[in-house]
Amino acid sequence: QSYYSSIEIIFLFSVKLKVNKMTSIHTLYPIDYYRLPNCQPEKLTMANENLGEFLAGDRIESSPYLLNMREQMYCEQVCITNLGRAEAQGVSPNKMVRAIRKNYHNNWIVDNLPAASKVEDDKTITTRYWQGFPIGYIDPSDKKAYVHNHVNIEIMYHPVGVTAVDKYRVVRFTVEPFSIDHKYEELDDDDDDEVTTDKAKITNPISSCGALKGTNHTSWNMLRNHKPALASGKTLFTYDVTWVQNDDLPWASRWDIYLSMDDAIPARVHWLSIANSLLIVFVLSAMIAAILIRNLKRDFKRYSRVSTDEEKAEELEEFGWKLVHADVFRPPLQYQMFFCVCCGTGAQLFCMVVLTILFSAIGFLSPSNRGSLIMAQLLTFVALGALNGYVTAVLYKTFKGKSWQNATTFTALFFPGIAFSIFFVLDLFAVHEHSSDAVPFTTIVILLVLWFGISTPLVYLGSYFGYKADVIEFPTNTSSIPRQIPDQPWYMSNLFTLAVGGILPFGACFVELFFILASVWMDQYYYVFGFLLLVFFILVATCAEITVLFCYFQLCGENYHWWWRSFSTAGSTAIWVFGYSVMYFKQLEANSFATYMLYFGYMGLACFGLFLATGCVGVYSALTFNQTIFGSIKID
To answer: Which residues lie across from 22 on neighbouring strands?
Structure first.
């Protein structure tokens, strides 16, 4: 897999341990590692990050933890840092306590591998390969916050090859946090600074820091008679390093356990999801076969046969969808330009999703390459601006629209303007929360350049060719006088079709939607893009089928206003998705206004994009269906 080739081989020297943003599923706002009083290196450096990493809030920086290749380390002291005032009733807690109570986790990196978290107790040892490791915990007995001031760092490696000397590759990185109340005497009396890196003499050492130092690493059993460290006052931070040679784990497969989350979600869950989706598609297809095909055959036979003299003499009145042949392709009565812009933007978003999932399924995009997925989505959307302009222009020209320049400008500003406005407002919330999600000014300038410097010109280019292209051909002519629409039954009302139209498409994808939301909001990995691609195509097929079914019923009721109805019928899937996201939000246990704004702001934007994409699928499905059936009958 190509994304592994950029990782450097580690020689027999120091190994860099880097720190990334600290994350919490309760606040959803990541914060910079050094915003808390953590130990800092002598020279703080920041890794070069791409645009996707900045937008995702990643802030990868150097750390004071020194690791040497294959060198076992025991109870090494990092620094003594002042965590702040002690917890007391009526006193505002310090930064560390607030972060622990918000369940923030550290995210460390060695050789591009994120740290897995090992948790040990009297009976079990559990390793988790997502969400990093907690910075501390709340004791259930006294409700106080305790900091993890000691970590066991375990690194698995293997030699590069027989011929290569002193060259190794890291294949696994695990951190086991502990809270140890180190009693110590500072060797330097100068304690005015908040953070000092001077060594200290531990007066109550555990075995790995005292008599057994250099022989045994810190373990759970050593801490039975030691108190944990409160998240306040001056605290000594220490660490162990264990190197384990693992020749059985191939370097090319080192990310597999992270991406599968150690099989926390079995593959059969995704297969059951697909089976559920296919069942819905089969049921819906059977309904269409039973209703549409049978009825259409009867209609074609009735409409196509030549009337006898007796029937002409009796002047039998026709009924059904043939009666609206002179109105069925009449442009929408309201908001024609807006309808065209929605269809063009929906086509752009639809193709962006297909290409992004396809590239991810092939293996071009991987979570191991941080920020690549966001960059792929962003750049693909920008490049597809020409498609947006073309689709909008052809449809608007077909409707005989006259304000071509206004339509093109509206197309270029519509969805990017909404997305950027929401992004900018939420970025202000991130700045207020001192979150690493706050995007630097230079990144905002880059986004504006992509919008106005690349996307907008491409929209105008696509519109130019769209207005030069031929209009969409319809099999029937449209009359100058609109036909009167009879009263419609309640089950063909806009509200009913809007509510019912999205149930089956949503049912076809809601299981995968759960895993996607967990990936976005709970820092879990999602890498089953092959399953996702299949589920997405099932979603598209379901949207198309339900739209065609409702369109047929609507035409049988002699209602030819199907343009907006078909868009909203398929697009209503997004309404159900947003409703599901509201239910999912309860799992996050968030209680701040900023978190509500962040979650529902971005979920609202995502659902609006889904509404446009699925709505475009519905329109072109209904258009193809109408062109087919009206082109198959004889019009007098």
So the answer is: 31
pTM of the complete model: 0.86
- Quick one: which of 362, 320, 147 has its CA closest to 236? 147
> CB-based burial of residue 319 (10 Å sphere; 0-12 exposed, 13-18 middle, 19+ buried)?
exposed
Q: Tell me which amino acid residue 250 is.
A: P
Over residues 104-156, the pLDDT tens digits come to 999 999 988 899 888 876 666 777 887 789 999 999 888 899 999 999 999 99
Q: What is the DSSP letter of 539?
A: H
The pairing of strands 116-120 and 167-178 is parallel
pLDDT in tens, 581-616: 999 998 887 778 999 999 999 999 999 999 999 999
Residue type for position 159? P
Q: Which residues of 284-318 are buried (b: 16+ CB within 10 A; e: fewer)?
A: beeeeeeebeeebeebeeebeeeeeeeeeeeeeee
Neighbours of 64 (CB within 10 A): 18
Q: What is the token pair recorded at 66?
A: 């020194």
Return d(Cα 346, Cα 342) in angstroms, integer: 6
Residue type for position 464 = Y
Helices (H), 72-200: 95-101
CA distance 96 to 77: 20
* CA distances from residue 131 to 8, 30, 191, 263 in whole angstroms, order as listed: 25, 12, 35, 15
Token pair listed for 538: 């099932």
Name residue 78's amino acid: V
